[in-house]
Specification:
Number of strands: 0
Radius of gyration: 17 Å
Number of helices: 5
Shape: globular
């Protein structure tokens, strides 16, 4: 079978790309990435040290969803190691958020760390989902 759209000759290795969250996972209403606890973030985002007055939940929600989905896709990596990649894709996944990456990165990292805490708690209970 000939696959012109792949632009790949037989025997060539496919180009490896790190998976990135789809916009639906990162910033839309139906994008509840597996295990994402929206109520947790919504109840505390105004108290976060990075919260900026004049911003609201619609600004921060995509960042939290992105951080959660990104962590699920980069389980064996550190946030610092993938931050540049996440920054590159922020504008494509931020939905209606008015946050620039410089502001969003803290919420993204917060969700990344919260994901880790939830995953570790699940492991302690014998769950790995």
């Amino acid at each position: 079978m000939h696959n012109d759209h792949l632009h790949q000759r037989r025997g060539d290795k496919p180009q490896e790309r790190a998976p990135r969250p789809r916009p639906a996972e990162a910033g839309t209403e139906d994008g509840n990435a597996s295990g994402f606890d929206e109520a947790y973030y919504q109840s505390g985002y105004r108290d976060a040290p990075y919260f900026s007055s004049g911003r609201n939940w619609r600004d921060y929600a995509p960042a939290y969803r992105y951080g959660h989905a990104a962590r699920a896709n980069h389980r064996d990596q550190r946030f610092d190691d993938v931050e540049a990649e996440l920054a590159t894709h922020w504008d494509t996944v931020k939905a209606d958020s008015r946050l620039l990456w410089a502001e969003a990165r803290y919420a993204v990292r917060d969700a990344w760390l919260h994901f880790d805490a939830g995953f570790q708690a699940g492991c302690a209970r014998g769950r790995h989902d």
